[in-house]
């Protein structure tokens, strides 16, 4: 596969020089060849991170959520309490922080 002539330099893979696969194209290919929904795959991956008690900030980075409320659906309540405790400066006052 040769690089797409219209792809900008930032839209190319650094090691191969080929154009990156865009979200829309990835969604179509996953649906057509694997019967998967890219949005559901994205949600499932973020849910697994939350179940593994990964901090909210890291989940936000992976999901590209800018607002913590949007990413909170993936996080267990214990982790949310810890994040709240850290944000108001009372780390250690919750059972999960001791």
UniProtKB/TrEMBL annotation:
InterPro entries in the record: DNA_brk_join_enz (IPR011010)
Protein name: Tyr recombinase domain-containing protein
Source species: Nonomuraea helvata
């Amino acid at each position: 596969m040769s690089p797409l002539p219209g792809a900008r330099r930032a839209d190319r893979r650094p090691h191969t020089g080929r154009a990156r696969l865009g979200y829309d194209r990835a969604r179509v290919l996953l649906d057509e060849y694997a019967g998967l929904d890219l949005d559901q795959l994205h949600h499932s991956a973020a849910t697994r991170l939350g179940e593994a008690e990964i901090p909210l900030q890291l989940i936000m980075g992976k999901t590209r959520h800018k607002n913590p409320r949007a990413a909170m659906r993936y996080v267990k309540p214990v982790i949310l309490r810890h994040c709240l405790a850290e944000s108001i400066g009372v780390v250690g006052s919750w059972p999960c922080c001791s």
